[in-house]
């Protein structure tokens, strides 16, 4: 029943790259923001990036800033997360999530926090 489906996870060596995709056609209107989270084994869920469908404005957690890039394709109804210079600590399950905008004047999204819909996740392993 999920309206968000993540693909593209896998295993890479440190320094490598992966590109994750989130099928999110249901949420490609300006009332939604899309976000990526990850959860390492035995650790709490961590918000790492977000993007506004309305304007394409983005934010990144300090842990991934400069290495990851979030983007969207409204026509295809997809959101991507390009992950470069991967580190072992990037290992975990990566989730795509959607949140309804509650402030029509806001042009930004927020890292982490409560979301309205979640995908089932795709695993990423970074090891040598």
In short:
The protein is mainly beta. It has no helices and eleven strands.
**Average pLDDT, all residues:** 96
Proportion of residues in extended strands: over 45%
Q: Alpha-carbon distance between the termini? A: 36 Å
- Run of helices and strands: EEEEEEEEEEE
**Structural classification:** mainly beta
Largest sheet: 7 strands, mixed
Large-scale geometry: globular
Number of helices: 0
Estimated helix fraction: under 10%
**Uncertain segments:** none
Number of strands: 11
- Please state the CA-atom Rg, rounded to the nearest Å: 14 Å
Question: In words, what does this structure look like?
Answer:
The protein is an all-beta fold and 128 residues long. Helices cover 0% and strands 45% of the residues. It is built from no helices and eleven strands. The protein has strands at 5-7, 10-12, 18-23, 32-39, 46-52, 58-60, 68-73, 78-83, 92-100, 117-118, 122-126. Strands 2, 4, 5, 6, 9, 10 and 11 form a seven-stranded mixed sheet that branches. Strand 4 (32-39) and strand 5 form a beta hairpin. The protein starts with a strand and ends with a strand.
Architecture blueprint of SSEs:
Layout: E1 5-7, E2 10-12, E3 18-23, E4 32-39, E5 46-52, E6 58-60, E7 68-73, E8 78-83, E9 92-100, E10 117-118, E11 122-126
């Amino acid at each position: 029943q999920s309206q968000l489906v993540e693909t593209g996870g896998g295993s890479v060596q440190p320094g490598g790259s992966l590109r994750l995709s989130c099928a999110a056609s249901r949420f490609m209107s300006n009332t939604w923001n899309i976000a990526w989270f990850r959860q390492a084994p035995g650790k709490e869920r961590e918000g790492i990036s977000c993007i506004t469908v309305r304007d394409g404005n983005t934010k990144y957690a300090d842990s991934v800033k400069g290495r990851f890039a979030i983007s969207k394709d409204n026509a295809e109804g997809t959101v991507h997360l390009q992950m470069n210079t991967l580190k072992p600590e990037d290992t975990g399950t990566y989730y795509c999530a959607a949140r309804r905008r509650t402030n029509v004047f806001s042009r930004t999204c927020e890292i982490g926090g409560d979301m309205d819909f979640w995908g089932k996740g795709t695993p990423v392993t970074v090891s040598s």
